[in-house]
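Researcher: We're teaching a course module on how sequence relates to structure. For the next exercise, students receive a sequence and then see the predicted structure as tokens, so they can try to spot secondary structure elements on their own. Here is the exercise chain.
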Amino acid sequence: MTSAQPPYRISVSPHGRSLPMKVGTRGSPLALWQTRHFLALLQTICPVLNGVAAFEEFAIRTTGDAVQDRRLAEIGGKGLFSKEIHEALLDKRVEFAVHSLKDLETEMPPGIVLGCTLRREDARDALILGPLCDTPDPADPLAALPAGALVGTSSVRRQAQLLHARPDLKVEVLRGNVQTRLSRVKAGDFAASLLALAGMRRLGIESEASAVLDPDSMVPSAGQGIVGITVREDDEELRGLLAAIEDPEARAVSTAERAMLAELDGSCRTPIGGHARRLPDGRLHLTGLVARADGSFLLKRSVMGADSDAYEMGTELGRSLRADSPRDIFG
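Model: And here is the predicted structure for the students to work with:
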């Protein structure tokens, strides 16, 4: 759950900067956990910043946080959880910005770069079952849902894969933070929902998961489980600092997944999944998925290659999926 520690310590002086340096983040409990985790890593490898009031969390309410009753695609699509944070970064109101990588657009705004990626937590989705569901069978967790059950999710990726496997299910929008969604299922508003296992682990509530779904049967979102830090492109000092906490495996898998996503260039209405992992022999294995939201079409393929080929792997897989999918999916 923690990022790999480098075998050295560095000394970076915040020369010319006023302290505390502000770190942009969303204000949810999970976002704040991720920000504090990132700052703890920085202070571990940089003695100059350890033990002093060097940083201050700067919580920013994004468009995605403000509108909770509609799907993301209906309120603007990509960048809804990062637009306002990146505006603060460009305006120099903050020095760093902390994101769930799955919420970060594939093409950064001019002047901003992805400075580092932290070690990936478990990328899988967790199934949350309400009181009227059966005990899940690990071999087929979705069988625990009654016929015609109502599932709450705002993710078209999850919806498409659910309906492809269980066309009898009904899906309605369920948004809000992790705790809100859990409480709605417990109250019986929905028979079930799905959450990223990474977020539940980070919040210490993994026990609330009824089952964990195999990434081959429920392909995760590209970047799921990875924390990404953005910074101004011209800030060489902070970019050097971030390089010291970069996790090489997280960079490789996220590069492959995000290259695939960029090649597909789907809107938030396009169900797309992407999951890369490192095999025991050191190669990368990347799975990509494209589907219709109603589950009537689903295409899934995989490629393998070296870390150094991560970008090319993602691009190749994205092109393959796009070429063999109906054109209307990407509208």
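Model: If you want an answer key for the exercise: The radius of gyration is 20 Å. Residues 1-13 have pLDDT under 50 and may be disordered.
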